[in-house]
Design a protein that fits this description.
heterodimer; A: alpha/beta; six-stranded mixed β-sheet; B: mainly alpha; two-stranded antiparallel ribbon; 68% helix
């Protein structure tokens, strides 16, 4: 797990405000506002063509916004190219390197461009990304997965404060995939802000802090996975009484009802041991207490489908069964309600967490 | 900038167009040196090794040399698109202008290297004819190949050096125009073709006599057929080069990748 929200109180490392990009009259990215804090992993997910890559390129300073602003570590990356000393990025999938140079020579070249990196660091990264035996082979003969791993090694060269990666695990076998996600998680653990775009929902759900769901160039929802993790559900004989008892506790962040069960979010996992005694104390019969596992894949599917239905219906949002009027701005409680729908559960309580 | 320049020099000699050009410029003078029908077609025969470089230059500056320079310049920029390495490099703390300036600088030196290599290859091809004093001319000075009497080896060498140097200078804007065209299209083939198209149109513009002194193509052969003073030629070429380079940098600064 990456840094806890309380530890990420510093100013955002990446911030976009009303970010937009048009090619001619065609909008590719629309009114995108989000931020990534130091120590946080933020994943952009969405169908092909949703605009994830364009966002990555806008944020990293490779493309120019037509609306809105981007700041990286408090500065505009276009106006302050020196800020890229603190950036590590892979924006091509597979990562692009000079094919006639070896993996090691490519990293040395990037080290020179980055202003100088010790040879020991290059060797360390080659080992970390399990490229040691292939380090002196020309990149032209590397497999897709090897190129991607070399790309991540290149991004980590300068121990950057900001990591931006477009499909970092594209074309990788399961072992390499696990390796890359572990490396990114560790980088965030050391305080880097990590922004990545991906289709690997199951992997990112395991360690990302927040997930932005994009569709047709817009951020249609933002899921705070930290809030979804330390969440539990209790099957009890009196749900209302149980909820009242729980929501009065300082170690409970929120509670709501779903399908006759009480869902609650703890301030820290250790507080779980207090739940059963508390319910007994309030005369509530506890039948089952279990982790409330959040299904990001199902949530994502539901949100994207709902957005498409909404668009097909004319964009008013009022006439579609799956979407309904609940679809709201990223991070809103309305948006979160859809996730509960996705799991076939009652959204009523989730829409109003206490 | 030093790191960028080193990088660009390293790339230059790995380009397929450079390797092809090296072979072509080596073989081309041999055609003149050993052409069996040269007298029947052109009405002269070679009497000195100094004449081979002159004939090589005269016959290549109209099309072959601009073509090679344009293709190499386009490939040096366009290869970054092909390999996808341009965004990767621009994500380092390197300004766009310094990245492109490194390429422009390397490509400004390229014509001198190309002409030096071509001159050496031509002299080597002409070696069987010897480099002694001879009756006739190099083909580059007064009197052409017929000359004005006996020509000393020193005079012949200076004539060749001056001509090759001026030809190299004239090729600089061709390289920079090719960079500009490739920045616009971000494709090596399109950039090279656009450059050739511009040069061909310029050649046609000689039908407007008032434009002639200002046409870049008119000065590609300034070493043997100057329409103005050497000072004017060099100034005009410098202006063309500066304009093409500045336009390329300005466009590149605002390009999305």
């Amino acid at each position: 797990m990456t840094q806890a929200p309380a530890e990420r109180a510093a100013a955002p490392a990446i911030r976009t405000e009303g970010l937009g990009k048009r090619y001619g009259r065609r909008p590719i990215v629309r009114d995108l506002t989000f931020h990534v804090s130091p120590g946080e992993v933020y994943a952009l997910v969405g169908p092909n063509g949703a605009g994830k890559t364009t966002v990555i390129r806008l944020v990293s300073g490779l493309a120019f916004p037509t609306e809105g602003t981007v700041t990286m570590l408090g500065k505009d990356p276009q106006q302050h190219p020196e800020i890229r000393r603190r950036l590590g990025a892979v924006v091509e999938a597979p990562a692009a390197f000079y094919p006639y140079l070896s993996g090691r020579a490519n990293l040395r070249l990037h080290a020179r461009l980055a202003g100088g990196v010790a040879d020991e660091r290059i060797e360390e990264l080659l080992e970390l990304m399990e490229l040691g035996p292939a380090a002196d082979r020309k990149v032209g003969v590397y497999s897709l997965g090897m190129r991607q791993r070399l790309g991540v090694a290149g991004a980590l060269l300068t121990r950057p404060d900001v990591l931006i990666l477009d499909e970092p695990a594209s074309g990788m076998d399961p072992l390499s995939l696990h390796l890359v996600h572990r490396v990114l998680r560790n980088a965030a653990g050391r305080g880097s802000a990590v922004l990545l775009s991906t289709h690997h929902l199951d992997e990112v759900a395991a360690y990302c802090n927040r997930v932005g769901i994009m569709e047709e160039g817009a951020l249609i929802d933002e899921v705070d996975l930290d809030r979804r993790r330390d969440r539990y559900r209790a099957r009890v004989d009196d749900p209302q009484a149980a909820r009242s008892a729980l929501q009065a506790q300082p170690w409970i962040l929120e509670t709501f009802l779903r399908a006759g069960q009480v869902i609650f979010h703890l301030t820290e996992p250790g507080a779980l041991t207090r739940v059963a005694p508390l319910l007994v104390e309030h005369g509530v019969g506890l039948q089952e207490l279990t982790a409330d596992v959040f299904d990001l894949r199902a949530y994502y599917r539901e949100r994207v489908s709902a957005e498409r239905l909404k668009r097909t219906a004319g964009g008013t949002g009022g006439g579609t069964a799956g979407a309904g009027p609940e679809i709201g701005r990223p991070g809103s409680s309305r948006g979160q309600a859809q996730g509960e729908d996705a799991q076939g559960e009652d959204a009523q309580g989730e829409g109003a967490p206490s | 900038m030093t790191a960028l320049l080193r990088m660009e020099w390293g790339k230059l000699f790995r380009l397929s167009s450079v390797r092809a050009a090296l072979v072509l410029l080596l073989v081309f003078p041999l055609l003149w040196a050993y052409a069996p029908g040269i007298f029947e077609v052109y009405g002269f025969f070679l009497v000195s090794g100094f004449q081979v470089p002159a004939l090589s230059l005269l016959s290549s500056m109209e099309f072959l040399m601009p073509l090679l320079v344009a293709i190499i310049a386009a490939e040096l920029v366009g290869m970054e698109s092909v390999h996808g390495t341009l965004p990767t490099v621009l994500l380092r703390p390197v300004t766009r202008s310094s990245w492109l300036l490194a390429k422009l600088l390397v490509l400004s030196v390229l014509p001198f290297l190309a002409m030096a290599y071509f001159l050496i290859a031509s002299l080597a091809a002409g070696a069987p004819y010897g480099f002694d004093a001879f009756v006739g001319g190099t083909g580059l000075g007064e009197g052409g190949l017929i000359g004005q009497g006996t020509m000393s080896p020193g005079d012949a060498a200076w004539e060749l050096l001056g001509a090759y140097l001026l030809a190299a200078v004239a090729l600089i804007p061709v390289a920079l125009l090719s960079v500009l065209a490739t920045v616009v299209t971000m494709n090596a083939a399109s950039g090279a073709l656009a450059t050739l198209a511009v040069l061909i149109v310029m050649q046609l513009l000689v039908v407007f006599p008032s434009l002639e002194p200002f046409l870049l193509t008119r000065h590609l052969s300034a070493y043997t057929d100057p329409v103005a003073s050497v000072g004017w030629v060099v100034t005009l070429i410098a202006l063309y080069s500066a304009a093409f380079a500045a336009a390329a940098v300005v466009l590149f600064e605002r390009k999305d990748f």
